[in-house]
């Protein structure tokens, strides 16, 4: 036993030395794009790429032909393969439940009414770096006397701005105990929904982040708060690292420490199997982290889509853009498993906790814009040597940061409080939420909105008192 203790002490001491050597602070040189870069059809360098700053009102207005074609495809889809006996979502989307979704989509889902609902929030388009960028721009009531604070909200895959339709009204409506209210800008990521896709390679999170900084400046906001989950979280971090002078603070509902783990952290993770207090701060963190085999095998089981989209997005996109049934299964399977890993053992995959029309609204955004292929390309643009060579990828976030940690988020994120300072140098707040998973704004809008309000309240007090 004594030998084991000595060996353990030596191992920890060695890890500490390695950790200190690797803890050199990175100074980020912004990898900004020239204003003449064009990501659209006229890709390359051109003076005419971004020759207008016009912001145009936009309404979703899908032609009857598109809906007629959709209904034809749903009506004439090939018979679904029956699931295995006693299998729910363990092998992927259960075809018996998929049949119910397709029946609802074909016979009860009213696109005319849903389109009218989606048009209740003010939407616009503007051309940035040669791409028409779609965004929601929701302001507080004109009669409000509260100070207005700009908030950039960013979605991820396979989500869309549809995720924000419940939370945005909660953020732009003044509340009694706050002297400020939010003005929300929620763009569709390039290649998603009604935003144009890049015509050439290289449009990763950092490049998208620069587009959004330019968008906010065009709307009159040289400095703002930024919030995101999934890819929105990655873009939020990129903006905060590359353009810290533009960001008051950042809020993420998918904080991750995976990329910033050092040898010392891996040692603590391993030893935490026996002494959890070395690495976890609560029972919730413990249950999300241990046993480590659960995290490892859970990642293997659920990451097949990621490898496919990092390597061959265009191949998978052909099938998904051609079949609405396949598209619905591919997207909604993620809304099942990523909401709660245990939902795969339920006959409905846990999807009945959502309204089916709202789930289909999100699927429709991908279908009517033919954007599944272009959305999946973001994985390829991120997972390559060229992107990882950018200086911000190995730097810390220095702006005030906050993390909302939802208990059913994918455990591979390892958003443990004792590790968060590895990534976030100025961590103001880390909140363990009581319920919810990956699609926080969609599943738990009130809970996420409350945390955003509280976070910005804390950050504003710190900022104003430091002036």
UniProtKB/TrEMBL annotation:
<dbReference type="GO" id="GO:0033961">
    <property type="term" value="F:cis-stilbene-oxide hydrolase activity"/>
</dbReference>
<dbReference type="InterPro" id="IPR029058">
    <property type="entry name" value="AB_hydrolase_fold"/>
</dbReference>
<dbReference type="InterPro" id="IPR016292">
    <property type="entry name" value="Epoxide_hydrolase"/>
</dbReference>
<keyword id="KW-0378">Hydrolase</keyword>
<dbReference type="GO" id="GO:0097176">
    <property type="term" value="P:epoxide metabolic process"/>
</dbReference>
<comment type="similarity">
    <text>Belongs to the peptidase S33 family.</text>
</comment>
<feature type="active site" description="Proton acceptor">
    <location>
        <position position="438"/>
    </location>
</feature>
<feature type="active site" description="Nucleophile">
    <location>
        <position position="230"/>
    </location>
</feature>
<protein>
    <recommendedName>
        <fullName>Epoxide hydrolase</fullName>
        <ecNumber>3.3.2.9</ecNumber>
    </recommendedName>
</protein>
<keyword id="KW-0058">Aromatic hydrocarbons catabolism</keyword>
<comment type="function">
    <text>Catalyzes juvenile hormone hydrolysis.</text>
</comment>
<feature type="domain" description="Epoxide hydrolase N-terminal">
    <location>
        <begin position="55"/>
        <end position="164"/>
    </location>
</feature>
<dbReference type="InterPro" id="IPR010497">
    <property type="entry name" value="Epoxide_hydro_N"/>
</dbReference>
<dbReference type="GO" id="GO:0005789">
    <property type="term" value="C:endoplasmic reticulum membrane"/>
</dbReference>
<feature type="signal peptide">
    <location>
        <begin position="1"/>
        <end position="23"/>
    </location>
</feature>
<keyword id="KW-0732">Signal</keyword>
<keyword id="KW-0472">Membrane</keyword>
<dbReference type="Pfam" id="PF06441">
    <property type="entry name" value="EHN"/>
</dbReference>
<keyword id="KW-0256">Endoplasmic reticulum</keyword>
<dbReference type="InterPro" id="IPR000639">
    <property type="entry name" value="Epox_hydrolase-like"/>
</dbReference>
<feature type="active site" description="Proton donor">
    <location>
        <position position="379"/>
    </location>
</feature>
């Amino acid at each position: 036993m004594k030998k084991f203790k000595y060996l353990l002490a030596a191992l920890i001491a060695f890890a500490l030395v390695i950790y200190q050597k690797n803890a050199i602070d990175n100074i980020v040189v912004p990898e900004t794009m020239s204003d003449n870069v064009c990501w659209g059809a006229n890709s390359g360098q051109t003076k005419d790429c971004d020759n207008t700053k016009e912001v145009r009102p936009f309404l979703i207005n899908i032609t009857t032909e598109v809906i007629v074609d959709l209904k034809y495809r749903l009506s004439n889809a090939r018979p679904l393969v029956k699931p295995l006996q006693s299998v729910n979502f363990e092998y992927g989307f259960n075809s018996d439940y998929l049949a119910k979704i397709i029946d609802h989509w074909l016979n009860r889902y009213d696109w005319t009414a849903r389109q009218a609902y989606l048009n209740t929030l003010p939407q616009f388009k503007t051309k940035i770096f040669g791409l028409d960028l779609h965004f929601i721009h929701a302001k507080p009531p004109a009669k409000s006397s509260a100070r207005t604070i700009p908030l950039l909200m960013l979605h991820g895959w396979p989500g869309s701005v549809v995720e924000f339709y419940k939370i945005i009204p909660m953020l732009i409506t003044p509340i009694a105990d706050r002297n400020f209210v939010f003005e929300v800008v929620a763009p569709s990521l390039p290649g998603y929904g009604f935003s144009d896709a890049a015509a050439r390679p290289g449009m990763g999170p950092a490049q998208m982040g620069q587009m959004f900084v330019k968008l906010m400046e065009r709307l009159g906001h040289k400095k703002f708060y930024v919030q995101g989950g999934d890819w929105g979280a990655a873009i939020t971090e990129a903006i905060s690292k590359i353009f810290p002078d533009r960001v008051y603070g950042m809020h993420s509902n998918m904080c991750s420490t995976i990329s910033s783990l050092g040898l010392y952290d891996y040692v603590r993770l391993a030893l935490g199997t026996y002494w959890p207090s070395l690495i976890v701060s609560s029972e919730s963190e413990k249950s999300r982290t241990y046993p480590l085999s659960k995290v490892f095998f859970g990642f293997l089981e659920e990451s097949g889509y990621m490898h496919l989209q990092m390597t061959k997005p265009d191949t998978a996109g052909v099938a998904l853009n051609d079949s609405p049934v396949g598209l619905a299964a591919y997207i909604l399977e993620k809304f099942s498993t990523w909401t709660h890993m245990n939902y795969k053992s339920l006959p409905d995959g846990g999807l009945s906790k959502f309204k089916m029309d709202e789930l289909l609204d999100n699927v429709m955004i991908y279908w009517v814009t033919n954007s599944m292929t272009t959305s999946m390309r973001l994985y390829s643009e991120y997972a390559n040597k060229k992107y990882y060579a950018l200086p911000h990828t190995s730097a810390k976030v220095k702006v005030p940061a906050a993390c909302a940690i939802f208990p059913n988020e994918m455990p591979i994120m390892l958003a443990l409080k004792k590790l968060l300072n590895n990534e976030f140098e100025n961590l103001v707040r880390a909140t363990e939420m009581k319920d919810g998973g990956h699609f926080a704004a969609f599943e738990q809008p009130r809970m996420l909105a409350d945390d955003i309000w509280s976070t910005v309240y804390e950050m504003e007090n710190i900022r104003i008192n430091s002036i």
